[in-house]
Amino acid sequence: MAGARAAIRYAKALLSLATDLKTTDVVNTDMKLIADTVAGNKELNDMLQSPVITSSDKKAVLLEVFKSSDKSTLDLINTLSTNNRISILQHVASKYNQLFDESKGIQIATVTTAVELTADLKKKVLAKAKELTGKDVEVENIIDENILGGFILRIGDTQYNASVANQLNKLKQEFTLN
């Protein structure tokens, strides 16, 4: 991904600044909003990636959309615009969230299921994930009907695939090999 290393550097610098100003929680909320907004809005994402639209126009749009954000967040937008790096804003926001969670000892567990997780199942997943990692865990549920049933659990670099689709693929491979 283009700009991944730069996104990490900007995110680390922002976390350091927010830590000094004791605004890490507020900036984390802003970064979640930015990451979710850009990811969920194709037009905004296309505008940020467009080489035709000037950095000043991109900056003006972002400052209007996120005008209620913390000063550090607005300064980040200004800095990225000045350095012609505004296109990596979503990646910086995502990296900031990740670094913030790591600094708080929080691990994100992504659970992909065919249907929404029930509250009881979510508690079981949280307990198991905490047992495996020894850290506080937040569960993010992704719904993907293509897995047919079961679940896929990802914590950091570890993935456990207990989906029906995966089991069917394993059976298919066994039959084609024999």
Automatic annotation (TrEMBL):
* NCBIfam families reported for this sequence: ATP_synt_delta (TIGR01145)
- Chief localization: membrane
Q: Where found?
A: Cell membrane; Membrane
Task: Note the SUPFAM superfamilies from the entry.
Answer: N-terminal domain of the delta subunit of the F1F0-ATP synthase
Bilayer disposition of the protein: Peripheral membrane protein
Sum up the protein's function in the record's words: F(1)F(0) ATP synthase produces ATP from ADP in the presence of a proton or sodium gradient. F-type ATPases consist of two structural domains, F(1) containing the extramembraneous catalytic core and F(0) containing the membrane proton channel, linked together by a central stalk and a peripheral stalk. During catalysis, ATP synthesis in the catalytic domain of F(1) is coupled via a rotary mechanism of the central stalk subunits to proton translocation.
Keywords from the named record: ATP synthesis, Cell membrane, CF(1), Hydrogen ion transport, Ion transport, Membrane, Transport
Q: Give the UniProt entry's GO cellular component terms.
A: plasma membrane; proton-transporting ATP synthase complex
The gene designation is atpH
Can you tell me which family this protein belongs to? Belongs to the ATPase delta chain family.
- What is the designated name of this protein? ATP synthase subunit delta
Q: Which PROSITE patterns match?
A: ATPASE_DELTA
A Pfam family recorded for this sequence: OSCP
Species source reads Algibacter pectinivorans
> What top-level branch of life does the organism fall under?
Bacteria
Q: Which residues form a coiled coil?
A: none
Record-level Gene Ontology MF annotations: proton-transporting ATP synthase activity, rotational mechanism
